[in-house]
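Morning - magnesium ion inputs below, output right after.
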Amino acid sequence: ADNHLASPVGTTLERYIMQKQGEFPFATGELSQLLRDIALAGKIINREVNRAGLAGIAGAYGQQNVQGEEQQKLDVVANIRFIRALRNGGQACAVLSEEEDEIIHTGNDQGKYVVAIDPLDGSSNINVNVSIGTIFSIYRRVTAVGSKATRADFLQGGRQQVAAGYILYGSSTMLVYTTGHGVVGFTYEPSLGEFFLSHPDIRIPEAGKTFSCNEGNWFDYPECVRTYLTGCKQQRFSGRYVGSLVADYHRNLFTGGIYLYPPTKKNPSGKLRLLYESYPLALVIEQAGGKALADGSAVLDIVPIDFHQRSALYIGSKDMVTAYQACAEAED
Ligand code: AHM
Ligand code: MG
């Protein structure tokens, strides 16, 4: 008689993580807890992002800062909030952030994981009400539990990531991640404060008809990139470029497409950061059946040297990235 009460209302992230953990009997639950902490950080940043438009008129809705402090920039706020969530969560012993030069030790030296983040990506879009995102990458530490994390924990290489993903603050807020067993997507329900499973198995279409790059850099692009893009145009593919990596990537993940950030005069090694932009998105794309290249190798095979090193990035549908690769190899 009470059947209607038992009818599923959707799987929350919490429940999903619990179920998955049950499938791995020897898992200790620490990675699960870390993913929950990241989701919490996402909710907090989502709140700040949503409020951002009101910040300039703070007085109008009674939120004026009594100390008269200057409104902090959203990317700075996101950085602080994210690190705080990880510190309070306890599973991450250290964090590497786009916003900070050096490793941030959380004080949880017992934590088994380290996390690299771009807390709020899409700098040109942050203050103009256009989609932005958070990107994260997780490693199991290689240093002894109980000691302080070191550079070695972060410089393990892309294939050693145990989980990676992103949060997109778009028309809806979504969390998309992989733990190496496919890619799942959750959509945030703000009135309930919960992420719900909306995309249980994300696969990128093998072929696509969308290319995403900053064409303003055309005259800096290597010849092979121009050859490839010219081919896209001859086939009347669509050009789509938000200028927020997470947004461009997310669209291509769902509809099929390729995102390109080649080397330019200004950024001779590419613009995107290997550890917290290229690596995590490359792991997600490979897990979704797509492909991610840098110059000369798969992104995940690049040997990391520096925390903030950059890479070229050609990422998306398998067939498109392979076609680009053919142009690049023909030029060699
Ligand atoms: P950021 O980390 O300073 O925000 O830079 C990364 C962003 C990406 O989100 C985006 O894809 C790219 O830079 C856009 O660069 P450009 O404005 O050169 O096209
Ligand atoms: Mg960034």
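Note: Residues 30-55 form the longest helix (26 residues).

O.
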